[in-house]
UniProtKB/TrEMBL annotation:
This is ABC-2 type transport system ATP-binding protein. One of its GO terms (molecular function) is ATP hydrolysis activity. The keyword NADP does not apply. It comes from Halopseudomonas xinjiangensis. Keywords: ATP-binding, Nucleotide-binding, Transport. It comes from the Bacteria. Pfam families: ABC_tran. Residues 5-234 form the ABC transporter domain. Signal peptide: none annotated. The keyword Transport applies.
Amino acid sequence: MEPIIRIRGLTKTYQSGFSALKGVDLTINRGEIFALLGPNGAGKTTLISIVCGIVNPTGGEVRVDGHDIQRDYRRARSLIGLVPQELTNNMFDTVWATVNLSRGLFGKPPNKPLVEQTLRDLSLWDKRDERIMNLSGGMKRRVLIAKALSHEPAVLFLDEPTAGVDVALRRDMWEMVRKLRDSGVTIILTTHYIEEAEEMADRIGVITGGELVLVEEKATLMRKLGTRQLTVHLQQPLAALPEWLGGLPVQLSENGHALVYSFGEQEQNGVAELLRRLDQHGIEFKDLHSSQSSLEDIFVSLVHGRGRGADSAEAPQ
């Protein structure tokens, strides 16, 4: 798949000496949904801000559809839509005026049908004459998305787009993001909601301490790093884990009523061995239950033990 964003050796060090990004390399494919995960202060917002031309990098190179973000700033920026974390609308303007103004700021001619369709897609059409100050928090966030889409960008950055949004509205926004991807827009999403990335992303990157520690297709990531468990509920409790289960990754539950076997994608043959040994030693069971680790489990395991940047460290420029 053809890349639309190429990031090479990207660094950002502030005057205080804090290193927010440490040689980040990343390629984002055209038409994909890419989720960037990381704890607070990991470098997510700094990375986005540099690509969008808000923050200057200390070193490295960023190209958007072949255009260098520093040498060809205007062209690169015209390809990008950004939905920031903070609500940044002019509260006294109407929804219609706000979105049209944003389109004009990018030098685009008026296009009433396009703006109307954008507002309809975001369930904002009935609110087009409302002042921003009179909208709910969820509607204000939709206006931010409409502004970001007003100049027809090829790339859309969503920085914590559903923060503070109720569950129903969050699901509506997920559906909207899928439709944008289907129309050819590349989506880069940062989120604290792990289920958001698990629901929508094609690929996932994990950043912590200013370093990109992993980039992988979601399905591959789940397969390689996800842990599956088989819980065997016993007819009679065991006082201790039998020696004849040695060599298998099996644990006995606290009450002795269940055996928990943990295995990865390459270790599924061990399940048959476990059941064979139980049968061989006359251990009867009444139920089997399987489960798989979530993306949240994988994320926690990846960032555990790594240094975290201070939350305030992403703010200075």
